Amino acid sequence: MRRVVLCLVAAAAAIVLGAVTLIHPAAAPAEEGATSASARQQVAARELAAAYAARQVRTIHRLRKQTWSYQRLMRRPLTPISRRAVRSTDPTYRQWIVSVWRKRAAAARRQAYHPPRKAAWSCIQRHEGAWNDPHAPYYGGLQMDIHFQRHYAPELLRRKGTADNWTAIEQIWVAERAYRSGRGFSPWPNTARACGLI
Q: Is a pLDDT exceeding 70 seen at residue 24?
């Protein structure tokens, strides 16, 4: 009788061990699948963060370029940019830098489009020619000759060609450079006199 009991206990133990063996192999793939899904989510999150950071850095550089373009036109000192602004790993800080440069670009544009003596230059232009007048030897709305352009705006002449290819605001600022050099309105004696400027 004792032998029979021992046999039954051994059989029961074997069944239990077999059940455990059957359960664990089935659970292992599920655990591996969950780990794999979590890893994929982490990779996707890192890629998304990297793409967002790259977009922020591109925006900072674009706004900085716009700001400097207006400042160069006005012959103003260029606003410096810190290395930390583009190297920071903090997205909140980078977004703050984006907003700072957006305000700087807007302020520089506003200043560029409201030059001193804008009304005077507009009056002279009305008596001189169209802003896109291409006829040599005088070009643009303020009728600048090549020597004038080469002296006061060599960078625009090199990059965009003669004054008829420049924007109206670029032509005005180049004329303003001549005015500030001490020449005043003397390069436009007749039209400046007609406008009551001399």
A: no
